[in-house]
Amino acid sequence: MTSDDMPHRALLPAGLADLLPPDAAREAALVEAMLAVFAAHGYERVKPPLLEFEDSLLAGSGAAVAEQTFRLMDPVSQRMMGLRADTTPQVARIAATRLANVARPLRLSYAGQVLRVRGTPIASERQMPQAGIELIGAATAMADAEVALLGVEALAAVGVTDVALDVLMPTMTPALLDAARVVPPLRQKLARALDRKDAADVAALAAEAGAPALTALLAAAGPADGALAALNAADLPPAARAIADNAAAVIAAIRARAPGLRITLDPVEFRGFTYHTGVAFTLYGPGGELARGGRYLSGEEPATGLTLYPDAVLRMAAPAAPAPRLFLAPGQDGAAHRAAGFVTVAALSAADTPRSLRCTHILHGQTPAPIED
Amino acid sequence: MTSDDMPHRALLPAGLADLLPPDAAREAALVEAMLAVFAAHGYERVKPPLLEFEDSLLAGSGAAVAEQTFRLMDPVSQRMMGLRADTTPQVARIAATRLANVARPLRLSYAGQVLRVRGTPIASERQMPQAGIELIGAATAMADAEVALLGVEALAAVGVTDVALDVLMPTMTPALLDAARVVPPLRQKLARALDRKDAADVAALAAEAGAPALTALLAAAGPADGALAALNAADLPPAARAIADNAAAVIAAIRARAPGLRITLDPVEFRGFTYHTGVAFTLYGPGGELARGGRYLSGEEPATGLTLYPDAVLRMAAPAAPAPRLFLAPGQDGAAHRAAGFVTVAALSAADTPRSLRCTHILHGQTPAPIED
After folding, report:
1. Percent of chain B with pLDDT over 70
2. Does A145 share its domain with A202?
């Protein structure tokens, strides 16, 4: 389908867009294919509403997106509602209330739209599809590994196989700074230097702070084997050692099931993982980030989850071949041909021709035949 | 999955609800099954955003839901946005702008959520799923018939076959009142009497108004054959006669393709069809209304469309048998069993048992075996 793209952009608010044919159908198909992978592993789908009271929507992990959440007055209750900017807090609410009596671990999945007040400098979108899983009530490295590998399997199911898993420990930097009793403003300076990955600044500030391990861990970032060896060799205070050992256990559990998966480890990265309590993950494809997740608290329960970004997956998935389009003149029946995989398009007036209906085939007797150019 | 339903209802605003397992997965599956039927007939999917500027959202047919539309200030543009209460105005915008250059008729489909400021006395829901089609740029009775029959076919695809089609002519009553030059307040009194289907009041007021055909047409409502005969026999002014003839042509086109379909005709019903310009439809199942649609103007183009209500369809569709759940002990691989239709649920710690994971099967060697009670 051709489109007349540019002149009408201003019809929609910035960061809000129409998905046109064939992309809208492709996105829906890949969301359902990913959810089918989750379902096959026992993840049961929930569908929370787009709007709910802001106090429940912004509780727990929802606090991370409070500034990005559209607010609306509910004329019925006179209370403020939020338009969800993330689905995880809603799943946590469902797990803690309506599914409180279901045995743990609880495996839940979801798919739907989220909305954000503003785009970011990197991504202007203000409405994004999400498809994800939450594994609630399991605290083991096996649980983290299951969730990360389900992301890989879901992407493979839609043809995205060139994927790398980045493992993060967002609690590591705070643990090292706590152990060295580093306080503001030095703490903020170090955080900024780490965020910039400025090795010279980190080295100088970490020495000043009495947290030299930060320098070693910044340098350790890279392919998992080398990074794990460097982590193992680093001189870490007990809390940081526990964090490192846990990451090693999660990576070992992933390796046991997916020996060929490309894994990197970034011990001091923490940006954007504000509510995580353990190992976090990012899945990358050739064109960028495809999913993000990790360990957190779902209410008061240990949990791990992953959110895939179907819009990013759509850009990386190979397009399906379009179905052949069969022209039906008035009175011709298409049921058998639809069952055989044709899209049928019926003429509704004498003005409708195979060409105007963008058909690739017409019927010769009962047999579809390609239209000659 | 058991749920702990009542104590937590107040956590969500009135009319907004969570869909739990297995209903959320069932609803998604039936939406995709219905969209697959539309796609097989050449309807290509679009996905407009949930939010857009209110002036485009409330244009055309959108005016009918203006009072039901949540408004939000866009902090980027400082303009007002609306949270869609209906999808048809958005599809009309897409057809008129980005798809303006695609040959007509244009067949588009969509699925998504809509939100409304308040529930109605009959239906308290404020978020509802919609799945629909729009056939834009075709003015024939064949077009109306195609859209109505696609609704029937989509419902059949999800197992809802006990369906009746109610055909309405929402322009008939205004045409009769216009022809008789009936003005307020008599016009409003007659409309209210028709809405109540109060035959005695209608007869008295219609006689006073000089529009006696209204009495005959009110009595004509019922199974299509009898109603069409009564319409044919009625003494109608020219505009009303054209409306009646068009409805007869649409019904004939439907009958030609679906001779067994139960069709009723209600010549004077108009309530809730505020923007329709020709024949309108309601599809009913045993539990109530499942879809609504009809002819309207998409921008300046003749169009006909249908919206199915997946929440209502879900209540009427037979539940699928749950998939067997196979317990996987650590180290057991489930890929082959998932491919064979099992849901596999992996133990993540020694606490996870087949019973706690609600499994129906365990592996005996490589073979799934039902768990004895």
Report:
1. 97
2. no
Distance from CA of A117 to the nearest CA of B (A): 7
CB contact under 8 A, B52 and A13: yes
Q: Give the CATH number of the domain where residue B314 resides.
A: 3.30.930.10
- Domain identity same for A117 and A29: yes
- Residues of B numbered 17-36 whose beta carbons fall under 8 angstroms of chain A's beta carbons: which are they? 17-22, 24-25, 27-28, 32, 35
Q: Judge whether A4 lies within some domain.
A: no
Across the interface, whether the CB atoms of B14 and A44 are under 8 A apart is answered no
Q: Is residue B231 part of a domain?
A: yes
Q: What is the mean pLDDT of residues A158-171?
A: 96
Across residues A180-192, what is the average pLDDT?
Answer: 91
| A95 & A200 share domain | no
Q: Is the pLDDT of residue A351 over 70?
A: yes
> Structure tokens of A246?
């846990």
Q: Do B40 and A77 touch (CB under 8 A)?
A: no
Predicted-complex ipTM score: 0.94
Residues 85-124 of A with CB under 8 A from B: 90, 93-94, 97-105, 107-108, 110-113, 115, 117-118
B77, B146: one domain? yes
Last residue of a domain, one of B320, B339, B356: B320
DSSP β-bridge partners for residue B289: B284
Q: Are residues A91 and A163 in the same domain?
A: yes
Amino acid B8: pLDDT: 46
Residues 6+ apart with CB under 8 A from B369: B361, B362, B363
- B2, part of any domain: no
Residue A223 belongs to domain spanning: 171-254
Judge whether B357 is closer than 8 Å to chain A, CB to CB.
yes
Determine the Cα–Cα distance for residues B218 and B220; give it in Å rounded to an integer: 5
B111, closest residue in chain A (CA to CA): A28
Is residue A162 included in any domain, yes or no?
yes
Together in a domain, B146 and B114 = yes
Average the pLDDT over B319-347 and give the result.
Answer: 95
Same domain, residue pair B32 and B111: yes
On whether both B117 and B265 belong to a single domain, the answer is no
User: How many structural domains compose chain A?
Assistant: 3
Instruction: Pick B8's closest partner by Cβ from A42, A75, A97.
Output: A97
